[in-house]
Amino acid sequence: MLNHHLNIVCDDVWQRLENSKRFGISQGEETLTDNLLLYLASQKLSTIKIIQTPKHKESIKGTDWEWWIGNSTNGFLRYAVQAKKLDARTGRYASLNHKVGAGALAEFQHKILEDYAKANNAIPLYAFYNHLDTPDLPKSWNCPLPLDHSKFGCTVTPLENVKKAISNKGWRTFEKIHSFPETVPLRCLAVCPNISSTSVLSGKTKVHRLGVEAKVYKNPWGWISEMGHLQTFEQMPQQYYDHELGYYPKRILIIDTSKINRDN
Predict the structure, then answer these.
(1) Domain annotation covers residue 264
(2) Cα separation, 215 vs 143, whole angstroms
(3) Is the pLDDT of residue 254 over 50?
(4) Which of 77, 22, 72, 64 is nearest to 189 (CA)?
(5) Could you tell me if 160 and 166 are in contact, meaning their C-beta atoms sit under 8 angstroms apart?
(6) Residue range of the domain that includes 16
(7) What is the DSSP string of 156-206?
(8) How does pLDDT run across 6-34, given as a tens digit for each residue?
(9) Does residue 261 have a pLDDT over 80?
(10) 13: which residues sit within 8 A by CB, 6+ positions away?
Protein backbone atom coordinates (compact mmCIF):
# COMPACT_ATOMS: atom_id res chain seq x y z
CA MET A 1 0.00 0.00 0.00
CA LEU A 2 1.05 3.60 -0.57
CA ASN A 3 0.79 4.25 3.15
CA HIS A 4 3.22 1.38 3.75
CA HIS A 5 5.83 2.86 1.39
CA LEU A 6 5.57 6.32 2.93
CA ASN A 7 6.12 4.74 6.34
CA ILE A 8 9.19 2.96 5.03
CA VAL A 9 10.87 6.15 3.78
CA CYS A 10 10.41 7.74 7.22
CA ASP A 11 11.83 4.64 8.91
CA ASP A 12 14.75 4.57 6.49
CA VAL A 13 15.80 8.17 7.18
CA TRP A 14 15.57 7.55 10.92
CA GLN A 15 17.77 4.44 10.64
CA ARG A 16 20.28 6.03 8.25
CA LEU A 17 20.86 8.93 10.59
CA GLU A 18 21.25 6.56 13.52
CA ASN A 19 23.86 4.59 11.58
CA SER A 20 25.50 7.80 10.41
CA LYS A 21 26.13 8.81 13.99
CA ARG A 22 27.17 5.31 15.06
CA PHE A 23 29.70 4.77 12.29
CA GLY A 24 30.81 8.35 11.73
CA ILE A 25 29.71 8.49 8.08
CA SER A 26 27.95 11.72 7.22
CA GLN A 27 24.60 11.73 5.42
CA GLY A 28 23.83 15.09 3.86
CA GLU A 29 20.39 16.45 3.02
CA GLU A 30 20.79 15.81 -0.69
CA THR A 31 21.97 12.23 -0.10
CA LEU A 32 18.99 11.53 2.15
CA THR A 33 16.62 13.03 -0.41
CA ASP A 34 18.14 10.98 -3.22
CA ASN A 35 17.88 7.76 -1.20
CA LEU A 36 14.25 8.49 -0.36
CA LEU A 37 13.40 9.08 -4.01
CA LEU A 38 15.46 6.09 -5.12
CA TYR A 39 13.43 3.83 -2.85
CA LEU A 40 10.11 5.17 -4.13
CA ALA A 41 11.26 4.91 -7.74
CA SER A 42 12.52 1.34 -7.26
CA GLN A 43 9.08 0.19 -6.11
CA LYS A 44 7.65 1.01 -9.56
CA LEU A 45 4.40 2.22 -8.04
CA SER A 46 1.66 3.27 -10.42
CA THR A 47 0.66 5.94 -7.91
CA ILE A 48 4.02 7.74 -7.75
CA LYS A 49 6.01 9.59 -10.39
CA ILE A 50 9.37 11.31 -9.84
CA ILE A 51 10.75 13.90 -12.24
CA GLN A 52 14.26 15.36 -12.33
CA THR A 53 14.07 18.88 -13.73
CA PRO A 54 16.67 20.10 -16.29
CA LYS A 55 20.17 19.88 -14.83
CA HIS A 56 22.31 22.17 -16.95
CA LYS A 57 21.32 25.16 -14.81
CA GLU A 58 21.43 23.38 -11.48
CA SER A 59 22.97 26.42 -9.81
CA ILE A 60 19.75 28.37 -10.43
CA LYS A 61 17.84 29.27 -7.28
CA GLY A 62 14.76 27.35 -6.24
CA THR A 63 13.40 24.67 -3.93
CA ASP A 64 14.62 21.15 -3.19
CA TRP A 65 11.31 19.50 -4.04
CA GLU A 66 7.90 20.19 -5.45
CA TRP A 67 5.21 17.75 -4.36
CA TRP A 68 1.79 17.28 -5.95
CA ILE A 69 -0.44 15.14 -3.72
CA GLY A 70 -4.07 14.20 -4.35
CA ASN A 71 -6.30 12.45 -6.85
CA SER A 72 -8.57 13.19 -9.80
CA THR A 73 -11.71 13.16 -7.66
CA ASN A 74 -10.61 15.44 -4.84
CA GLY A 75 -7.98 17.48 -6.64
CA PHE A 76 -4.31 17.96 -5.88
CA LEU A 77 -2.43 20.19 -3.46
CA ARG A 78 0.94 21.56 -4.53
CA TYR A 79 3.83 21.91 -2.07
CA ALA A 80 7.14 23.75 -2.41
CA VAL A 81 9.60 22.01 -0.09
CA GLN A 82 12.98 22.78 1.42
CA ALA A 83 14.79 19.93 3.21
CA LYS A 84 16.86 20.28 6.40
CA LYS A 85 18.69 17.73 8.52
CA LEU A 86 18.80 17.73 12.31
CA ASP A 87 22.26 18.14 13.82
CA ALA A 88 22.52 15.01 15.96
CA ARG A 89 25.07 16.59 18.31
CA THR A 90 23.05 19.67 19.19
CA GLY A 91 19.44 18.73 18.44
CA ARG A 92 19.22 21.89 16.33
CA TYR A 93 18.58 22.76 12.70
CA ALA A 94 21.70 24.83 12.26
CA SER A 95 21.10 26.05 8.70
CA LEU A 96 17.52 27.33 8.89
CA ASN A 97 18.74 30.86 8.21
CA HIS A 98 20.99 29.78 5.34
CA LYS A 99 21.71 32.17 2.47
CA VAL A 100 21.99 31.14 -1.17
CA GLY A 101 24.38 32.95 -3.49
CA ALA A 102 27.27 35.29 -2.77
CA GLY A 103 27.74 38.92 -1.83
CA ALA A 104 24.99 41.43 -2.49
CA LEU A 105 23.06 38.87 -4.57
CA ALA A 106 22.76 36.38 -1.70
CA GLU A 107 19.21 35.66 -0.51
CA PHE A 108 17.82 33.82 2.45
CA GLN A 109 16.70 30.33 1.52
CA HIS A 110 13.40 30.72 3.36
CA LYS A 111 12.69 33.92 1.38
CA ILE A 112 13.34 32.10 -1.90
CA LEU A 113 10.92 29.37 -0.81
CA GLU A 114 8.31 31.95 0.17
CA ASP A 115 8.61 33.85 -3.11
CA TYR A 116 8.48 30.64 -5.15
CA ALA A 117 5.40 29.35 -3.33
CA LYS A 118 3.56 32.66 -3.64
CA ALA A 119 4.33 33.09 -7.35
CA ASN A 120 3.38 29.51 -8.21
CA ASN A 121 0.39 28.93 -5.91
CA ALA A 122 2.08 26.28 -3.77
CA ILE A 123 2.11 25.58 -0.03
CA PRO A 124 5.60 26.35 1.37
CA LEU A 125 6.92 23.58 3.62
CA TYR A 126 10.11 22.51 5.32
CA ALA A 127 10.89 18.78 5.41
CA PHE A 128 13.09 17.66 8.30
CA TYR A 129 15.33 14.60 8.42
CA ASN A 130 15.69 13.43 12.01
CA HIS A 131 17.00 10.93 14.49
CA LEU A 132 17.04 11.18 18.28
CA ASP A 133 18.72 9.04 20.91
CA THR A 134 16.45 7.30 23.40
CA PRO A 135 16.76 9.87 26.24
CA ASP A 136 15.62 12.64 23.88
CA LEU A 137 12.61 10.88 22.36
CA PRO A 138 9.37 12.88 22.62
CA LYS A 139 6.42 11.40 24.46
CA SER A 140 3.77 12.75 22.10
CA TRP A 141 3.24 13.91 18.54
CA ASN A 142 0.73 15.71 16.33
CA CYS A 143 -0.92 12.67 14.80
CA PRO A 144 -4.04 10.69 15.83
CA LEU A 145 -2.24 7.41 15.11
CA PRO A 146 -0.21 5.71 17.88
CA LEU A 147 3.17 7.27 18.59
CA ASP A 148 5.90 5.67 16.46
CA HIS A 149 9.26 7.39 16.87
CA SER A 150 10.73 6.19 13.58
CA LYS A 151 8.07 8.19 11.74
CA PHE A 152 9.87 11.28 12.98
CA GLY A 153 12.53 10.31 10.44
CA CYS A 154 10.89 12.64 7.94
CA THR A 155 8.52 15.33 9.16
CA VAL A 156 7.11 18.50 7.62
CA THR A 157 6.03 21.90 8.90
CA PRO A 158 4.75 25.08 7.22
CA LEU A 159 7.22 27.84 6.38
CA GLU A 160 5.58 30.19 8.88
CA ASN A 161 6.71 27.94 11.73
CA VAL A 162 10.28 28.03 10.46
CA LYS A 163 10.15 31.83 10.24
CA LYS A 164 9.03 31.93 13.88
CA ALA A 165 11.89 29.62 14.85
CA ILE A 166 14.39 31.84 13.04
CA SER A 167 13.05 34.96 14.75
CA ASN A 168 13.17 33.59 18.30
CA LYS A 169 16.36 32.66 20.11
CA GLY A 170 16.56 28.98 21.03
CA TRP A 171 13.68 27.90 18.81
CA ARG A 172 15.67 26.16 16.05
CA THR A 173 15.46 22.82 17.85
CA PHE A 174 13.72 19.51 17.22
CA GLU A 175 11.68 20.01 20.38
CA LYS A 176 10.42 23.47 19.46
CA ILE A 177 9.76 22.78 15.77
CA HIS A 178 7.82 19.64 16.68
CA SER A 179 5.77 21.46 19.31
CA PHE A 180 3.97 23.34 16.54
CA PRO A 181 0.66 21.51 15.95
CA GLU A 182 1.16 21.61 12.16
CA THR A 183 4.44 19.65 12.31
CA VAL A 184 3.55 16.11 11.26
CA PRO A 185 5.12 13.00 9.70
CA LEU A 186 5.58 13.16 5.93
CA ARG A 187 2.95 10.48 5.35
CA CYS A 188 0.23 12.75 6.78
CA LEU A 189 0.25 14.86 3.62
CA ALA A 190 -1.14 11.87 1.73
CA VAL A 191 -3.11 9.87 4.29
CA CYS A 192 -4.52 12.35 6.82
CA PRO A 193 -8.05 13.43 5.78
CA ASN A 194 -7.62 16.74 7.63
CA ILE A 195 -4.84 17.64 5.17
CA SER A 196 -5.33 15.65 1.98
CA SER A 197 -9.11 15.77 1.60
CA THR A 198 -10.30 18.47 -0.77
CA SER A 199 -12.98 18.36 -3.44
CA VAL A 200 -12.35 19.70 -6.89
CA LEU A 201 -15.84 18.49 -7.80
CA SER A 202 -17.42 20.86 -5.30
CA GLY A 203 -16.22 23.79 -7.36
CA LYS A 204 -13.87 25.03 -4.65
CA THR A 205 -10.68 26.48 -6.04
CA LYS A 206 -8.98 27.07 -2.69
CA VAL A 207 -8.90 25.43 0.74
CA HIS A 208 -7.22 26.41 4.01
CA ARG A 209 -4.35 24.00 4.64
CA LEU A 210 -1.26 24.22 6.83
CA GLY A 211 -1.74 27.89 7.54
CA VAL A 212 -2.30 29.14 3.99
CA GLU A 213 -5.08 29.44 1.43
CA ALA A 214 -4.06 26.66 -0.94
CA LYS A 215 -5.09 26.32 -4.55
CA VAL A 216 -6.81 23.05 -5.48
CA TYR A 217 -5.48 21.78 -8.80
CA LYS A 218 -7.05 19.42 -11.27
CA ASN A 219 -5.12 16.24 -12.07
CA PRO A 220 -1.59 17.29 -13.21
CA TRP A 221 -0.46 13.73 -14.02
CA GLY A 222 -0.51 14.19 -17.80
CA TRP A 223 1.63 17.29 -18.17
CA ILE A 224 4.00 16.36 -15.32
CA SER A 225 4.63 13.04 -17.08
CA GLU A 226 6.16 14.98 -19.97
CA MET A 227 8.46 17.08 -17.76
CA GLY A 228 11.31 14.58 -17.75
CA HIS A 229 11.91 15.18 -21.46
CA LEU A 230 12.48 18.94 -21.16
CA GLN A 231 15.90 20.41 -21.88
CA THR A 232 15.54 23.83 -20.24
CA PHE A 233 13.59 25.38 -17.39
CA GLU A 234 12.03 27.82 -19.82
CA GLN A 235 10.18 24.87 -21.41
CA MET A 236 8.32 24.19 -18.16
CA PRO A 237 4.66 25.22 -18.63
CA GLN A 238 4.23 28.91 -17.89
CA GLN A 239 0.75 28.43 -16.46
CA TYR A 240 2.40 26.59 -13.57
CA TYR A 241 5.85 28.20 -13.35
CA ASP A 242 6.56 31.91 -13.12
CA HIS A 243 9.49 32.34 -15.51
CA GLU A 244 9.85 36.00 -14.57
CA LEU A 245 10.65 34.98 -11.00
CA GLY A 246 13.06 32.38 -12.36
CA TYR A 247 13.04 29.93 -9.42
CA TYR A 248 12.54 26.22 -10.10
CA PRO A 249 12.39 22.93 -8.18
CA LYS A 250 15.24 20.42 -8.42
CA ARG A 251 12.83 17.49 -8.37
CA ILE A 252 9.10 16.96 -8.72
CA LEU A 253 7.21 14.20 -6.90
CA ILE A 254 3.58 13.41 -7.69
CA ILE A 255 1.55 11.08 -5.46
CA ASP A 256 -1.88 9.83 -6.50
CA THR A 257 -3.83 9.04 -3.33
CA SER A 258 -6.76 7.34 -5.07
CA LYS A 259 -5.33 3.93 -4.13
CA ILE A 260 -4.11 4.89 -0.67
CA ASN A 261 -5.76 1.91 0.98
CA ARG A 262 -5.22 -0.62 -1.78
CA ASP A 263 -2.21 -2.60 -2.90
CA ASN A 264 -0.26 -1.01 -5.77
Answers:
(1) no
(2) 24
(3) yes
(4) 77
(5) no
(6) 2-259
(7) EEEHHHHHHHHHSTT--BHHHHTTSTT-EETTHHHH-HHHH---GGGT--E
(8) 999 999 999 999 999 999 999 999 999 99
(9) no
(10) 32, 35, 36, 129, 130, 131, 153, 154
d(CA 3, CA 6): 5
Per residue, the 3-state secondary structure of 215-232, as one string, reads ECECCCHHHHHCHHHCCC
| Residues recorded for the chain | 264
Among the listed residues 255, 253, 248, 226, the one whose alpha carbon sits nearest the alpha carbon of residue 119? 248
Average pLDDT over residues 109-128: 96
Total structural domains in the chain? 1
The DSSP line for 112-135 is: HHHHHHHHTT-EEEEEEE----GG
β-strand partners of 85: 129
Contact 196, 6 (CB under 8 A): no
Mean pLDDT of the chain: 90
Asked if the structure places residue 207 within a domain, the reply is yes
